[in-house]
Design a protein that fits this description.
This protein is α+β, with helices and mostly antiparallel strands. About 15% of the residues lie in helices and about 20% in strands. The protein contains two helices and nine strands. A five-stranded antiparallel sheet has the order 2-1-3-5-4, with no helix packed on it. The N and C termini lie far apart (about 180 Å).
């Protein structure tokens, strides 16, 4: 009995004979060559890569931290300078109003000593006893003409002070004690004052007084040239 394995296997083909390697020129069987000599490998020459273009060296600047520190330092210096200005102004105190006065202004005197000032007010006010006849700089050696009152306003740490020559604001009814002093005489209550303004004339009178008989005192003011200060003759009587 024969066994059936589903058919016969196909006849096997003989393996093809290997062809000999091609001989190199001048090759001899008696010669023995190393594989490298027999089959020289073709070495591929990779193109040399050109170097990357060189970037110009960056200039080293200040770092952000250093810049911030410099900015803070600058602000501190500026702030310190501003602070010194404010401190100086604070030490100098408030600016005196006397420095803004011009001839012809009527004023009220306030304070005393280094705190003295002359404040402009309406000439019609009953509390404005003086009129500015001349303004200048207080250099320590100055004076006013006869009949005018000398008044200095100090301006500490603000430069030289203000020099004022004042006249009595000629208003009927104002009362004083001593009008012949070198400094401005203060207003007095007419019940206890020595003198009271009875008449006012709008021009200076040197020879003939326009005041009525019985007048106790007379003051005549002449303006210092082209200013707003007005000439006047003031008559005083005893209250």
């Amino acid at each position: 009995m024969s066994e059936n394995h589903g058919g016969q296997f196909p006849p096997q083909q003989p393996y093809p004979q290997q062809q000999p390697y091609p001989r190199q020129p001048g090759y001899s069987q008696d010669q023995h060559y190393s594989p490298e000599q027999q089959w020289p490998q073709q070495q591929q020459q990779w193109p040399q890569q050109e170097g990357w273009p060189q970037q110009p060296p960056k200039k080293k600047g200040l770092s952000t931290k250093v810049k911030v520190l410099l900015l803070v330092a600058a602000l501190v210096v500026v702030g310190g300078g501003i602070g010194l200005i404010f401190v100086a102004k604070s030490a100098a105190g408030p600016e005196k109003q006397a420095g803004k006065l011009v001839e012809g202004d009527c004023v009220v005197l306030t304070g005393a000593g280094k705190g003295a000032d002359a404040v402009k007010t309406s000439c019609d006010s009953p509390q404005a006893p003086y009129a500015v006849s001349l303004t200048g700089i207080d250099k320590g050696d100055w004076d006013c003409k006869e009949g005018f009152y000398k008044y200095a306003v100090a301006t500490p740490l603000r430069g030289e002070g203000v020099a004022l020559c004042l006249a009595i604001n000629a208003k009927v009814g104002l009362c004083f004690d001593d009008i012949e002093t070198k400094t401005p005489p203060p207003l007095k209550d007419c019940g206890s004052a020595r003198l009271k303004i009875s008449e006012v004339f709008g021009q200076a009178s040197i020879v003939n007084s326009p005041c009525k008989e019985g007048t106790a005192e007379v003051i005549s003011y002449s303006s210092y040239g082209a200013t707003n200060f007005k000439s006047a003759t003031i008559c005083f009587v005893k209250p």
